[in-house]
Amino acid sequence: MPSSHAGSSNAAPSNRSAAARGSTGARGKTARPPESTRAAERPSTRESSREQTRTSGAQGKGKAGRIKHFVLDTNVLLHDPAALFVFQEHEVVIPVTVIEEIDTFKRDAGDRGRNAREVIRHLDRLRQMGKLVEGVKWGDACDIDGLIPKARLEDPTKTGSVRIEIGEFPRPHSIREDKPDNRIIAVAHGLAQKHTGEEVVFVSKDLNARIKADVLGLTSEDFENTKVNADALYSGYVTLEVDGDLIDELYKDRMLSLSKLAPVLEGRLDSENARRGLFANQYVILRDIDDENHTGLARRLGDTDHVIPVTAPRKPTFGILPRNLQQTMALDLLLDDEIRMVTLMGGAGTGKTLMAVAAGMAKVFNEERYDKMLVARPIMPMGRDIGYLPGSKDDKLSAWMQPIFDNVGYLLSTRGAPMQQADSKSTEQRITSLMDSGKLVLEPLTYIRGRSIPHQFMIVDEAQNLTPHEVKTIISRIGEGTKVILTGDVQQIDNP
User: Fold this and answer.
1) What's the confidence (pLDDT) of residue 52?
2) Which of 93, 105, 134, 312 lies 20 to 30 angstroms, CA to CA, from 373?
3) Mean pLDDT of the region 333-348
4) 444 phi-psi bin (left φ>0, alpha ψ -120 to 50, beta other)
């Protein structure tokens, strides 16, 4: 019976993969022991129950249907300015000390300054709707200039209020020192004594502040509304057990209608995903119910109503062949010119960067599908920074881009790729020649604002260290005919 080699049972996934909608994640260059073969669409029971106990937007009311009072620390608003509007029907209290602290950050050039200014704009808009010292219902502001993300509301009819607390509360002996953190905690403590019988929650991302609040008998929680559960990230594929005839039909007709997979999908996915079906370019691992060795690998072709078979390439891609299912999926997406954006997520040593560079070199140097290959990395050191680097911009970049040089040098020197011809040039000379010709460009992300990048194969390495704002800035720079690859590992974030 026809069967995909990539889908055979002895090619077990080596680790997790995740991707954005329409493009999937994959794994890389060495066949490492499997970390997990779980379906990433279904978080563990322990994690799910843990998430329900966290603040995470504070869904629902108190025990007796009472309104809760959430006192926010400065770091919560600097982390996510929209935190003002995620507590549903409850009251959000902002101590005036928080306003003073935010004012000191508004001139910062980075994300912290940008978030501080956004908080100020939100409060100014609410100020025009009512008196903040008395509390302003913010539900009517959802339709004003789109400042408040209505999509983040579970029930737009149940919106709470935002109030600035200007009163001074006596500080308990344990926090008697006059400092901003203690004054903010004192507000939460004072409100808890004032609103006896009502729930007052102190929300902060500062662990020491939460410990202080807990010592005083306050309910203190971390703000985790924007935290990502890595186990629940979109994996890019789903595994289905089907009749063997469907696998045979897939490889015989070179396609399979989604309607024939619908009954299996409804039993495999939750109700919401079942109604939606497969995402565009999502993979399906098909396993025969009666024969575990009879398997297949398919991908939904864009937003069409059918899936197509996927097989591992018989010829190396610049000397690289996939070694497991996830690598097969990744390479399939990297070499498909119709897919303009791919995200690869995996642990260290799984070949994310190597496969992306190999696909880029094949597309640029061999097929000449793109004008050049642009590789960019955030300038983010691991551990202590060694300080300023000497030389020109290229000299300074050489240290940051050394991981890219390692991968390019590896592909040029040992893989026997088609462009490898007998000559006396060393690997370093070949890399220099490619850079001098403009076919290979290494750039820091520092200078990407305002640029236009058309007809290029762009790789953004170590993307886990980018903020959402920076990722949006990069994507908005992409021009016509450009393909962008984002690679990263959420377990190696150096820019928290």
Assistant:
1) 36
2) 312
3) 93
4) beta
Q: What letters, b where the CB count within 10 A reaches 16 and e where it falls short, cover 411-448? A: bbbebebeeeeeeeeeeeebbeebeeeebbbbbebeeb
Q: What is the distance between the alpha carbons of residues 212 and 59, in angstroms, rounded to a whole number?
A: 25
Report the 10 Å Cβ neighbour count for 247: 26
Q: Please tell me the number of Cα atoms within 13 Å of 242 on its side-chain side.
A: 28
Cβ distance 486 to 346 under 8 Å?
Answer: no
Q: C-alpha 152: how far from its chain's center? A: 17
Look at 475 and 141; give whichever has higher pLDDT: 475
* Helix, coil or strand: residue 178: coil
Query: Which residue would you say has higher pLDDT here, 26 or 426?
Result: 426
Instruction: Please state which CATH number belongs to domain 351-496.
Output: 3.40.50.300
Residue found under tokens 């509390």: 135
Q: State the amino acid at position 131 in one-letter form.
A: K
Q: Which two tokens stand for residue 352?
A: 């994310």
Q: What is the mean pLDDT of the chain?
A: 78
Q: What is the pLDDT of residue 9?
A: 33
Q: What share of the chain is helix, strand, coil (3-state, %, to 5)?
A: 35, 15, 45
**What are the structural domain ranges in the chain?**
1-41+228-317, 57-221, 351-496
C-beta atoms surrounding 253 within 10 Å: 12
DSSP 467-494: -HHHHHHHHHTB-TT-EEEEEE-GGG-S
Structure tokens at 300: 């939904």
Q: How far is CA 146 from CA 87, 115, 150, 152, 239, in A?
A: 18, 16, 8, 12, 39
Section 361-382 average pLDDT: 86
Which CATH architecture is the domain 57-221 placed in? 3-Layer(aba) Sandwich (3.40)
Q: Which residues lie below 8 Å from residue 194, measured CB to CB, with a gap of 6+? A: none
Please check whether residue 339 is in contact with residue 375, taking contact to mean a CB–CB distance below 8 angstroms. Answer: no
In this structure, the chain runs to a length of 496
274-302 mean pLDDT: 87
Query: For 244-279, how does the pLDDT look when each residue is reduced to its tens digit (9 = 90+)?
Result: 999 999 999 999 998 888 888 876 655 444 445 788
Q: How far apart are CA 438 and CA 253, in angstroms?
A: 43
Tokens of 136: 């302003």
Query: Same fold for the domain at 57-221 and the one at 351-496?
Result: yes
